[in-house]
Each structure stands twice: as structure tokens, then as C-alpha cells.
Amino acid sequence: MQIKEISLPEKVIGFYLDSGIEHLYPPQGEAIDKGLLEGKNMVAAIPTASGKTLIAELAMLSSITKGGKALYIVPLRALASEKMDRFLKFRQIGIQTGISTGDFEARDEWLGANDIIIATSEKADSLLRNETSWMQDITVIVVDEVHLLDSPNRGPTLEVTIAKLRKLNPKAQIIALSATVGNAQEIADWLKGGLVLSEWRPTDLREGVYYADTINYIGAQKAVAITSSDDGVNIVIDTLEEGGQCLVFESSRKNCVGFAKKLDRHVDKLLSKQERSVLDKIVDAVIETSETEASKVLAQCIRNGVAFHHAGLNSAHRRLVEDGFRENMIKVICSTPTLAAGLNLPARRVVIRSYKRYDSNFGMQPIPVLEYKQMAGRAGRPHLDPYGESVLIARSYDEMEALFGNYVNAKAEDVWSKLGTENALRTHVLSTIVNGFASSEEGLMEFMSATFFAHQQEARNLQELVEQSIAFLLEHGMLQQEGRLRATRLGKLVSMLYIDPLSAATILQGLEKAGKLTDLTLMHLVCSTPDMKQLYMRSSDYTMINEFATVHKDEFARMPSPFKSIEYEWFLGEVKTALFMIKWIDEIPMDEITAQFNVGEGDIHAFADIAQWLMHATAKLAETMEFPGTEKAYELEKRIQYGANAQLLELVSIRDVGRVRARKLYNAGLTSVEALKNAGVERIGQLIGPKTAERIMHNIMGSYQTGKIKGNGFAEAVYRP
Ligand code: ADP
């Protein structure tokens, strides 16, 4: 089908023609034939990079040009930015896009001026909870990566958010984009929509298994030259010698780094002079954004054209690696499977070095077919590579046969709702009542009947869990039963703060019981809630953490007896996480923290983001319920945001002044913004370098003119769990 033939305003058609898109891909044409532009709900279950986003774009643009508004829901913040970059191009045709990523309590009313609003599923849920008015004006709802309904962490929120949005806007069109999953038809039936199910790809994908120096595809083989005793190295070098780039998936971060280090001397030989000089610039940028030992390892690999990528990297490094790869300067990325879920980063060849992953209950387990397909699907850059190839590695003929059967020729699993647990339901039962979607048990059950769970199983299977959730919320003063179910002031606050009611109950009980309220008391309290991520307890941690807990026993609001071994073990995990965060706010150097806790810089920020959000909730709860700890919790919230002691808070709130620079300035007597202004750029330059001093001076002078400190995080803290 030609773009010109579809019934969209001329300016929209012109926009696509100008960007070089003249023909629709077959699945896109099928979506149009099935009623996409007539407002029909649609599920598109097609492979990565096969034009799913364009299907959503056509529906959004069709509705917007008739006066509508679109909400685009993504699972990850990184994806929200990627979509934002794309949709900003619509400015040329007068269509505005905004992104909602801030504080969960914020209504973001100002975003209503946009035609397209991008939000993560959690943020969309919080906007609904805060009764943001433009939510009612939405005419198209796009749900990207809808197969995440299957995720125990994200799925329940996603399906409840979809159910609420449909209740609020019964006429809105829903476009759900999915990987090819086993039961896409079931998702389409739930949404009362058409289904586009296709394996079509713009670039051919050859899936193969490497065994005995050969990549075996269905009906073809390719011999690989042996330059190393490591099969993975040989497959990578073979790709680069053909002029392609390689994405290598490893099961753990340690293996990613190890394999990148192993590869670099092989890849180094293949680089041109010009590539080397660009890589050197990337290396400079890596070093400039972090001084840790881990970043030196990354820098060394990048110098040789190889990188690793996992959640332990800080966000600046992740971006540098992704951009360096897109520009074809970095030739190989060794990544954990997280990279496969989302980011648009295709390569000529994908090598899956390990198809097993560690599971804390069952040890090493084979990955699901869906995950394999997501990784393999990254192979082949549209319009650049003649074809893409994915390669699994077998050590025996039998293993090769099994890999063909279990992955290459296998069908992806079905998606299953994960709403059926009290932990998943409790928070949604509360918010459903707070927002007036229900006011009785029957009303709740009727609301739940619109979920994917109810479509897939029986709504009445949720009855007992709904009853348990109501009982919990009544017991903890978040609901009242006055004939109808009504949310109390506390219930409304908990829903708006976007925390699990069990977290709120834990925090309030802790504040009430705690004798001494120290930094550790509050930090442990936050770390003992179900909303907090926990650090894993290694056996080598036990003695140190146990000793620490014993010495500080008066500071914990709750400490189980060491004789209750499982509970006590769990408690030690919380203490370890709290100690990790205390080190961060006590300005312990990054390297020391990462070494002691066996984490990366990215983990520190990820944990701090959640702890900051929960500490903010603690402050609000204490303030509203007139419990002790309000002031301290507000101060800790800021300290977690910046990773600094209280005395540095004024300095770190200036843009470009992090905890390390602030400490240097402070120790030299420059303890406030006023002191910096008086000291002048030269003096500041002597302490933290002339270029940074210029930038900082510019920031404080500019901000003083407007009477506000620019980038002042106190007022605009961003909570991003
Ligand atoms: P997906 O969302 O399925 O991963 P995208 O929609 O991002 O895939 O499309 C991948 C790439 O293909 C994008 O660069 C997009 O511009 C391009 N593309 C999509 N549809 C077409 C088309 N009909 N013709 C040419 N290029 C297209």
C-alpha cells in the first residue's frame, strides 16, 4: 500500500513522503485494512523493527488531526526519551509532544497542551490517581510492549491502568504493540480489537546455531575461521571481517565485562586510524563523566572498539556506548539481556553466548523463547545490512539439535496476567476506590472484570484477594466502611504518593514505635518496605552486617530475634541495603561503595531514586499524621538525591556541582552560593578546574537574575522508581 493512498490529511502524507517513507510495510497495510484509521482497537504483534511505531503514529495522527489527543504508554524511561526524539519531528506539521516523567504526586496539568503525551505505565497510573484533567480528553491510547502484562512487577499496573483508561474514556481507540507472543489473539479479544499478527521483517533474519566451527542455519552453513580458542571470539571476528557489527548477549554483568576484555585485542587490530580518533573522543567523555575504576575498564575497552552495557553503568556511559555503536565506531557491545527489551540498537549479527540465566530459586535456567526471540530480533539493521543473523552456541551435536527445537523453531510463550496476588491487588483496590471507580466490594469486582486477568481466567478468582485487600485497608485506616467504602485522608494520601499501602503501614508503625530516630532508623524503615529494592545478602556479608546490626540495635524500629532465622536473615538484607544508602549520603567515594557492595554506579543511582521517593513519602506521611520524623525525613530525601551531607545541600543544588565538587569547594571555605559569587571564577577554577568554574559561575549568575537557583532539585525532585 502506498502512503499516498491512505486517508490522512495532506500534511501528514507529506511528512512521511519527505522522510522517505513511500510504501507501507505489509503489517502496516493490514492494520489499515482492518480499520486502524476508522478508530478500531488494534493489537499489532510483529517482530522488532518491523514498523510497529508507525502503526501507532498513523492512528494518533489520524485522531489528532480531527481534534483528538494521544497517550503513548511505554515500559521504560529510556524508551520514553527514544519515542520523544521521534515524535518531536511532528512539530513540522504542528503537532506537539510532551513527556511525563516527573514526581509521582505531580498532576502535570501543563502537559495537557500537547497533542501526544508519553508516559511510563506507572506514571500514567499516577496521573489517573491524581485526577489529571486532560486524561479525560485522550482519544487514542497506545500501549507499547503490551506483552509485559506477563511481568510480575510491571504487568498488574499495566492492566489496571488500561482498564481505568477504558472506563474513563470508553470511546478512546486502543493500539497495543506487542512482540510476537503465543496468545496475541487473546489480548486482542480482551481489547475488543483487530489483530495484526505477522513474522514479516524489513530485513531478513537468519537464525542459526554454532557448532564445530560452523554456523548452522536452516538449509545453509557458514564456516568460521579459528583465531582463538573461544568460539564466541571467532564468531565476533568473523562478523567484523565481513564489515558488520556485533551484539553479544551474556547471562551476567561479570561475563559481559570479561568477554569485552577478552575481545578487545582482537578487535583493536581491525580499526582504522579515523575510527581510533573518534573512539578516543568517546573515551574522554567516559572518563569525564566518572572517575571510578569500573569506568576506566570501560574506557580501555572502548579505546579498542568494544564496550559492555548493563544496568550497573551510569546513564551517561550507557548513552555513550549506545551512540558510539549507532555511529558504527564501537564495533561490539557485550550486554546483559536487558538491552534486548526495548532500545532500538540493531546489529548485523547477534551472538547469544548463554541461553541460561541465574534464578535465585532454581539455579541456572534456560531463558524463555520470547526472550530469545527479542534478542535474536535485534539482528539486521534495516536499509543497511543485507540480512541479520543470530547465533546460539552449542557444545555438542545434541545440544545443537535441542537449541533448534527449543528456540529457533519454537513458538513464543503465552502471556499470563500476574494480577492474582494480594501484593499486586492491594494498591489497585485502594486507588480504584480513591478515584471513584468503585465504592463497594461488588463495584470493585465489576471493575476487576475489565482486567486481562478476568478475561483470561475468572474474575471471581480475585474475590478472596479483593476481600483480603479491603480488610487490610480498613484495618490500617486507609478505608472506612460507612455503608459504602470510602477512602480516608490517609488512604487518599497513600494513593497519591503512589506507594504500596503495606509500605505506608510499615512506615507509620515504625515511626510510632521507634525510640531513637536517627538517619539509620529512617533509612532502614524505608528499606524494609515492599516498594524498596533489596541488595542480595552474600554469605561473606553475614558477619559484618550482623555486627553492624547488633551495635546499632537501638536504632531499628523493628528487629526480629536472631533465633527466627528466616525473618532475621531478611532483616539483615534490609540493613545491608540501608547501610549501602547511608554510605552514599555520607559521601563515601563511589569506588569504595561499588567495591564493598559489589554493585555498579548505575545501581547506586537506581537504589537512590527509589529510596528518595520512599523517604519523601515518609516525610509526607509523618507530616500529615503528625508523627515524629518529618524534618529529618525531608532532609534525608535531599541528601539521598545528591548523595551528600546536609552541609553541602546548598552547593549541590547548583547545576554542574556534584557531591565531589561541592565537597572540594566547601572544604576550601566556599560553603554557599553567596560565597561562590564573592570568590569569583578564578578562585573556583583553582579548586575544580577553569572550564567547570565558568559553567558554574554562569549557572549561579543567570539564576540569581531570575531569583531562583536553576536546577534546584529541592523544588523539582524527580522520583523515578
Ligand atoms: P518497531 O516499533 O516495530 O520496533 P519502528 O516502527 O521503530 O519499529 O521501525 C523501525 C524503522 O523502520 C524506523 O526507522 C522506521 O522509520 C522505519 N520504517 C517503519 N515503517 C517504514 C516504512 N513503511 N517504510 C520505510 N521505513 C519504515
> Biggest β-sheet: count, sense, barrel?
8 strands, mixed
Q: Share of helix among residues?
A: 40-55%
Distance separating the two termini: 42 Å
Number of domains: 5
Bound molecules: adenosine-5'-diphosphate
Strand content: 5-15%
What do we call the CATH homologous superfamily of the largest domain?
P-loop containing nucleotide triphosphate hydrolases
How does CATH name the architecture of the largest domain? 3-Layer(aba) Sandwich
At CATH level 3, the topology of the largest domain is Rossmann fold
Dominant shape: globular
Low-confidence stretches: 703-721
Please identify the structural class as seen in this structure: alpha/beta
Task: Give the rounded overall mean pLDDT.
Answer: 91
Number of strands: 19
Quickly count the helices: 30
Spatial extent as radius of gyration: 27 Å
